[in-house]
Specification:
Layout (H helix, E strand, L loop, with lengths): L1 E10 L2 H18 L3 H20 L4 E10 L2 E10 L7 H4 L13 H8 L2 E6 L5 E8 L1
Antiparallel strand pairs: 1-2, 2-3, 3-5, 4-5
Helix pairs in contact: 1-2, 2-4
C-alpha cells in the first residue's frame, strides 16, 4: 500500500464538522470514488466528526489517499483525547444512540464504509478509522 497524499485538520467546534465534510468530499472526488460511495463516506465522516466534537471534546481528522493493487482509497482517522467510550459493546449495538447525532452511531458509520476500526477506553480518548476504496 502506498500513501499518495496525507494531511490533518482540527475538528474542535461545530463549524469544523462542516469543514471535515467538505474536505472529505474534495478528497473522495480526487480519489475517483463514485458518487454513491462519496455520499456514504461523507455521511460517515460527518457522523464521526460530530462525535469527535460532542463526545470527545474535539480532536483531529487525519486523512490519507492510498493506492493499492490498482485501486485508490481514502482513509480517515478521527482521534480525540476525550473521556473514551465506556461500553464499546453497547456503542456497537445496532439502533443504540446516545442522542444528539445524526442517529447513525458507530454501527451506521461502519455499514457505510469498506474498512472500519475503533479503539477507545475510558479516560484514553477514541480513535475511529474508516476507509472507502474505488
Amino acid at each position: 500500500m502506498t500513501i499518495l497524499k496525507s494531511g490533518s485538520q482540527a475538528v474542535g467546534v461545530e463549524q469544523d464538522v462542516v469543514l471535515a465534510r467538505q474536505t472529505t468530499r474534495k478528497l473522495a472526488v480526487e480519489c475517483g470514488l463514485r458518487l454513491v460511495d462519496q455520499t456514504k463516506l461523507i455521511t460517515a465522516a460527518s457522523e464521526l466528526a460530530r462525535n469527535t466534537v460532542i463526545y470527545g471534546g474535539g480532536g483531529d481528522m487525519d486523512w490519507e489517499i492510498l493506492q493499492e493493487e490498482g485501486r485508490k482509497g481514502l482513509r480517515l482517522l478521527f482521534r480525540d483525547e476525550g473521556p473514551g467510550i465506556p461500553d464499546m459493546k453497547l456503542a456497537m449495538t445496532d439502533g443504540w444512540t446516545s442522542g444528539g447525532g445524526l442517529g447513525l452511531g458507530l454501527t451506521g458509520a461502519k455499514r457505510l464504509v469498506d474498512e472500519f476500526s475503533v479503539d477507545s477506553a475510558p479516560g484514553a480518548g477514541t480513535r475511529v478509522m474508516i476507509c472507502k476504496w474505488t
